[in-house]
Amino acid sequence: MIGILQYCRGYLRIRVRGFSPERFMNLCSNRDILLWNITREDGVYDMNISLRSFYKLRPIARKTGTRVAILERYGLPFLVPQLLRRKMFCAGLFLALGFWIWSSFYVWDIELTGNYQITEDIFEDFLEEAGVHVGMPKEDLDIGTLEKEIRRTFKQVTWTSARLSGTRLRIEIKENDAPILTEEQKKDGGSDLVAEYDGTIESMIVRNGVPKVSIGESVEKGTVLVEGSIPVYNDDATVKEYQYVRADADIMLLHERTYTARLPYSHIQKEYTGRTRTQRFLRFGNREIRLPQERPFLVYDTVVRESRPQFFEMLSIPVWIGRKTHREYLDVEYEYTLDEAESLLNEKIMTFLISLEEKGVQIIEKNVKIDTNGGTWVITGNFQVREPIGVSVDIRPPKDMGETGSDE
Fold first, then answer.
1. Which pLDDT score is estimated for 397?
2. How far apart are CA 295 and CA 302, in angstroms?
3. Into how many domains does the chain fold?
4. Residue 145: CATH number of its domain
């Protein structure tokens, strides 16, 4: 604290030399003149003294036969006049301070956490419709209303919290893990499991519903595998009513899958010339500011590098600076060799097989061949697979079904 006061009042670093510097310091002490950070070298003393006390040294120096020289000046009394002479610096300082104060009254960043089912794009569209966006005044933001609108719009959201942290709006939500049923599903509540492919049933474990096929039976696409309407019989073995459930089963189907991919003989490949042009820009939110520039090359691609100054990042202000590097290239036509074509086509078919395995499909047999047709390389794969099937189809109960029997 003492150091801050000394800096605000201003102080000097002086050098004292002459007949009796020790007597000089004693007289200063007797007259309540504070000296600190005193050092001695070759009979010469360096020390600090306040600016106000410095003006009292002349009679003391004359009386002791010493000379006083100023080495350094410290403090606001010396700094402020220098700053005032630098008008552009002062103007920039006040503008920066004014910008910082002005920007603190707006929302410059929106952060969403806890969303798994709701994508950020969908939530951004909701916020835009609700009038919440980057750059809006804080006074226009109603936190309570926003939280209610989130829960009303997204039925899977069970809890939400929104708060302002500086210039950043933080929105936290919690989603319900249970599936949300529509009104029709709540009312009808029944569905069948239907086959998506032709094939042979290899295994079947039914957890809910009435099985309509058996193991080893061949089925066609669209065949009902498990029915979600369970009949309830009268004493005379007539149908009294149906209870509708959502059919559920693990069913494995043996069937064939075919995959075909094509690759042209020739392809266009970029060949860079080495010529580049750089363009710098300033981006504020989604708005980009840059100097006008003519089209750099006839054909080119662009590499964008941008960074956010730490000052704006701490204030959550969406300001980025960056540069765009335009690289010229030529379109050169090349023909694939047999080895290149086989490698690229095999990559495509491996990607297809990996996607099947991720869905739980087991590959039993495969037959792959590569041929040429009409100026293209063609790869064809025939696969014998074991695949889980059963797509859910909602049941529409007949409206004229009675409580005591059926139409039959």
1. 64
2. 12
3. 5
4. 3.10.20.310
Bridge partners (DSSP) listed for residue 257: 383
Q: How far is residue 204's CA from residue 211's CA, in Å, rounded to a whole number? A: 9
Residues 324 and 345 in one domain: no
> Does 384 fall in a domain?
yes
Biggest CA–CA distance in the chain, Å, is 135
Question: Could you give the CA distance from residue 379 to residue 377 in angstroms, rounded to a whole number?
Answer: 7
CATH code at 34?
A: 3.30.70.260
| d(C-alpha 347, C-alpha 334), whole Å | 20
The confidence band for 251, taking pLDDT boundaries of 50, 70 and 90, is very high
Token digits for 341? Answer: 């074509």
pTM (predicted TM-score): 0.47
Whole-angstrom distance, CA of residue 381 vs CA of residue 393: 31
| pLDDT tens digits, one per residue of 363-399 | 899 898 888 887 888 989 999 999 999 888 888 766 5
Structure tokens, 399 = 């409206």
Structure tokens at 184: 């029709």
Q: Tell me, what's the pLDDT at 405?
A: 41
- Range of the structural domain that residue 321 is part of: 268-334
What separation in angstroms does the CA of 105 have from each of 64, 97, 128, 346?
A: 62, 13, 19, 58
Res 182: pLDDT = 52
Position 294 confidence tier, pLDDT thresholds 50, 70, 90: confident
